[in-house]
Amino acid sequence: MKLKTILDLPCGMRFIFSEMEFASSFSGQVLLDSVMNTTPAAIEGSYNELREFLSLYQTIGGSATLDKCRAALLDLRDIRNTLTALESGKVPDDVELFEIKNLAFISEKVRGILAPVNLKSVNFPDLADIVSLLDPEGHGIPSFYIYDSFDSKLSELRKKIRNSGDESGAILAECLIIEARVREMLGNRLKGSVFGLREALMSLAKADILISKSILTKKLNLTIPEIATGINKYSSVFNPEISAILSRENKTFQKVNIELDLNKPTILTGANMGGKSVVLKTLALSQFLFQFGFGVPAASAEITPVEEIHYSPGDLQDMTRGLSSFAAEMKMADRLIKNSAHGHKILALLDEPARTTNPQEGTALVTSLLNILNGRPVFVLVATHYNVKAKGCARIRVKGLEEGKMNYELIEAGESAPPREAVNIALSLGIDREWLDEAIRVMDEQNKE
C-alpha cells in the first residue's frame, strides 16, 4: 500500500500531508510513492532515521544546519527520466546536462553542510568529479554551457564568428559539430555515473522528507511511539486536523486514552455527537502515521504493526462500482473475515456497521462478525448503537454529558443498556420538550416488556 492511495481516506492524512513543509515538490512525490512498512524492523529503521533528524532539528545549531540544507534543496527537481535516458545511451541535450549539473551541485552542497554532523540515515555519493566535468572552468554556477575549454578549437571558432558577424556559415557549422561531439563525450562519461546520480537524487529527497517530518513532529506536537506486540495503547491521543479547527475557534480538543488488544474485539458505544467517529478516524490516522514513519498524535503510544488496515468510516458507498453503503460494508467485512482466517494481522475500525439495515438484522450481523473475529489476529474496534452481546468482547463507551457539557472520556461499559444520552443531548440542544418526554415514556414502556 502506497501513501498516495490513502491520501483521501476520511481519516485526516491529506491534512497531515498539507502541513508538511517540503523544500522540493519532488520530495513530496517520493513520499506519496512510498510503501507502508509492515514489519517491526522496517518501522524501527524509519523511526531511527526520524530520531536522528529530529534530535538535530531541536538544537539551535542543528536547526540552522537543516535550514541551510532546505535552502539548497529548493532547486531540487525530478530528473529520473533524464537519468533513464542517459543510461540507455541517449546523447543528452543542454537542458539535460543542466539538470545533471544542477543535481551534482546540490548534492555536493548538502553533503558539505551535513558532513560535520555525521548523519547515518542519509548517504551522499561523492559527485565532485561530475561537478568538475560539467563546470571545467570552475564558475560555480549550475547553468550549463559548452565552455571553450571542452575543446581547444571552440575558442578560436567562436572568436571568428564574433569578429565576422557570420552566424549562419561554415564556421558556425563547424562549431555546432564540435559542440555535438562534446555532448556525446559528456554523455559517455556520465553514463557510468548514473547509479551515483540516482543515489544522490533519492538521498536528497529522503533528507527533505526527514526534515519535513521533524518540523511536522514539533509543529503538531507528535510523539514517536513504542513498537508493541499484541497491544495498541494510546495516552492522550488527539486528532490533529480537528484540534487545529477547534484551536481557531478558541476551543480545545479533549484528548482520550484507549487500549485495544489483539484477538479481543472492542465495542464502543455512545450517542450521536459523542465523538465515536472521531476516535475511529484518529486511530486509523495514527496507525497509518506509525507505519509510514511519522510521529503520532498522542502523549505516548504503544502500537503493533499490522499487515492491513480496514477502516470503514460509516458511509462506504462506492459509486464507481455501483455499490450501496450496505453492500460496500458487507464486502469489506467479507474481506476482513477471509483475510483474518488466513492469519493476516489486521486493524479493523468499523463505524456503525450495518446501520442502514433494520435493527434486528443489523444487531445480528454485527454480533456474528465479532463472534467470528474473536480470537483471530485482529485488532477490532466497532462503534455501534446496537445492543450487541457478542462473546468475549471488551466494552467501552463515551462518558457522555456532565452538567450539560459533553465529556468525551472513554470508560469501561457493562453489558446493560447504554444511558439515554441521545435524549440528554437533544435536551441540551433545546429540542421540543413534549417530543422528548414522549420518547422517554415510550422507552420506559419498552423496558417493562
User: How would you write the strand order of the largest sheet?
Assistant: 6-7-8-4-9-10
Q: CATH H-level name of the largest domain... which superfamily? A: P-loop containing nucleotide triphosphate hydrolases
Shape: elongated
Unreliable segments of 5+ consecutive residues: 317-322
**Strand portion, in percent?**
5-15%
Distance, first to last CA: 51 Å
> Assembly state here?
single chain
The CATH class assignment of the largest domain is Alpha Beta
CATH architecture of the largest domain: 3-Layer(aba) Sandwich
What proportion of the residues is helical, as a percent range? 40-55%
CATH topology of the largest domain: Rossmann fold
Structural class: alpha/beta
The number of helical segments is: 16
Summarize the main sheet: 6 strands, mixed
Structure, explained:
With about 450 residues, this protein is an alpha/beta fold. It has 2 domains: about 190 residues, MutS, DNA mismatch repair protein, Chain A, domain 3 (Orthogonal Bundle); about 200 residues, 3-Layer(aba) Sandwich (Rossmann fold). Helix content is about 50%, strand content about 15%. It has 16 helices and 10 strands. Strands 6-7-8-4-9-10 form a 6-stranded mixed sheet, with helices on both faces. Strands 1-5-2-3 form a 4-stranded mixed sheet. The longest helix is centred in the middle third of the chain and has 26 residues.
